[in-house]
Write the structure tokens for this entry.
Amino acid sequence: MEQFKHEKTEQNKERNKDTLTEREASIIKMAAKGMSNNEIAEQLHLSVRTIESHLGTIFNKFGVGSRIEAVIEALRSSLFTLDELD
């Protein structure tokens, strides 16, 4: 039963990765570049609260609890490569 739960969670995570919006994908890429929420908000002409909301949605879709975990999941799912972060 425990293995089934793990497989189900992994399937949901995979499915949710495919559902990141274009905006969410750009925000997680900026976060991966080391930009702060303030810097991302300024560049996209959005409020910091909006960036925080997008990151929360990304965390939920990836099934993670931190910015670092979200970046790792984005890399694993090939949303971008390390070379693209230069």
In short: The CA atoms of residues 29 and 84 lie 9 Å apart.
